[in-house]
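Provenance and format

Records in this collection were gathered into a single text stream. Each protein contributes a sequence line and a token line. The two records reproduced below are adjacent in the stream.
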Amino acid sequence: MRPLRIQALAIGPGERVALSGFDAGAAEVLVNLVTGASVPDDGTVEVGGRATSSISDGDEWLSTLDQFGIVSPRAVLLDAASLQQNLAMPLSLEIDPVPPAIAQRVKALATDVGLDPAALDRPIAALDALTRARAHLARAIALGPSLLILEHPTVGFAAGDPKAFGETVARVSIQRSLATLIISEDADFAAAAATRRLALHAASGELRAPRKFFGWL
């Protein structure tokens, strides 16, 4: 596992914290530590009051994953499938066709994250980066997580889209009372999405309010 040092980070229910100073590799390490896919060599990672190091085996770890909703470019969308089918995947194994009851839940999720219902029948491959990010967000919240994690979600966005997506993330987090961890170098997105912004100082592992030269103030 790539080394990563963080002195301390705490996120309470309903709080939205944006972190800068994490490249793609460091962001992946942090996500793995938070979700318990990896455990720290030193220190403790606690989610919901429980240390990830206390998880005894793979089956128990899998049972904890529903508490996380993850928006990441590493997450897989099926390009040949429709937007509706992709949004249905966390909810049902039946996606061809999508059952009517699931289709209603998918439509509600789409509305929650600002997706145009008219796009539900379009293949994912035909959709722009913002729409795909909204699809990732809809899938992330589908099972009612308590912690939402966004890992560099605005890669490939057009000008103006990061702010719009940040506003959507903030609204969804507020409506669902989610603790939200945002890892991003996108100042416009972070400003719109987060209630608190911190920058990592890699040498010390300290997280501090970013200075103006980070473009965040």
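Adjacent record:
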Amino acid sequence: MAAVGMLLFYLSLFASCGSAELQSKNGNATTKGELGLVKRNDIDVISQLRQKKLKTFGEWDVGEDSPYLYFVEETDGGDRLQVINSNYEILYEKTLPEISRVYGITALRKPYDQLVFEYHEGGNDYFVQMLDLVSGKVSEQIYSAKADNTFSANIVIQPQFRSGVDPAKEPFEVLLTDFGLPSAAGKYTKVLRYKEGMYRLIGEFDRAKAAEFIENNLNRR
């Protein structure tokens, strides 16, 4: 069993309160007596993971170098996201006040997913970041220096359907809507598109006007 697969196997074991008979990834039962086959390095890492307060974890399939393992751990300094490879090397790490969601999406139209995480830094706004494998390194793909990656009402990562664009080939766009839904303030949506190797803010639109346009142009059944 690959090292990352082994790691996930044991994480599942600890989450299920240490059952006497375990289920491996291929469906075969494994007894505790067989765990001696695990390498010393595996046992050390697993022992450390048992002490962690994990919020979520999973595999990130990035092709030939796969799979990577990601997990979010609750720490005294906030939620820490780590991405590691099969040699337990940390490829990416970030600690934030709160990480609310982590999920994969094929936004860049590559043969594998990018890894998206949404996070909170206090106040009313949430933020979004996307990770991709670039030249063998895990790299952030959303420009965030000017807080262009904030939203408070809604986030959508979707194909582009503009004229002259092939949605099957063009990278997805990221739509970030500001202001909470109960707010009387207008709802504006920022549009981020992939440009010069990164998602960047290109503009925003009035969500109410867009909704009115859609309503007026619906094909009624």
